[in-house]
Amino acid sequence: MVGDQALDIEVDGIRETRFVLGDHRGKVVVLEFMTTWCRFCRDQHEILRQLQEEVAGVVIVSIDVDANLRSSELETWVESMGVDWFHGHSPEAGFAYQVSAVPTVIIIDKEGVIRYRGNFTPFNKLQLLTNQLL
Asked: Is the pTM of this model over 0.90?
């Protein structure tokens, strides 16, 4: 919940990468829980791409929570989107963060505290929130 310390998750990603939330203490992190089949997730990705281009210093992480997804499908989807931030697959992380709808966007401040939690989030709101935390 907003105001709580973020759970330290570890997620395996595409191209043999790994994300550990605790390793990013001291940075603002935008977590997106998503699926490849969700139209709103695709739209949220375009907004995250804009955030990456316009707000320096924010770590963006996308975690697919579809229990039936194969990692090769996620890699193909990421390539089609043309984005380069971390993408991983972890229904368990979605469960830990009580994700019940996609996309779910969570913003974590430099001290590891959740400062925002919502579903589809427009660019101007993400930009405002992240700039306040940088």
From this structure: yes
